């Protein structure tokens, strides 16, 4: 197969793939942000409560 034939086939495949419908999640980055926001909220809530406990454990 010559290089020009290869490029033609490659372009045909690229055109076919552009028409395909994507199934599944496409916004993975948004999901990561949601998890990060939840973790920050939990850390903020537990931070005040656990500071005293950590200090007592270190000295006791």
Automatic annotation (TrEMBL):
It holds the Pfam family ANAPC15. Residues 31-60 have a biased composition (Acidic residues). This is Uncharacterized protein. One of its GO terms (biological process) is regulation of mitotic cell cycle spindle assembly checkpoint. PANTHER family: OS02G0593400 PROTEIN (PTHR37771:SF2). One of its GO terms (cellular component) is anaphase-promoting complex. Residues 27-60 are annotated as: Disordered. It comes from the Eukaryota.
């Amino acid at each position: 197969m010559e290089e020009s034939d290869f490029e033609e086939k490659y372009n045909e495949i690229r055109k076919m793939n552009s028409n395909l419908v994507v199934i599944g999640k496409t916004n993975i980055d948004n999901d990561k942000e949601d998890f990060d926001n939840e973790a920050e909220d939990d850390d903020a809530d537990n931070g005040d409560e656990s500071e005293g406990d950590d200090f007592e454990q270190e000295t006791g």
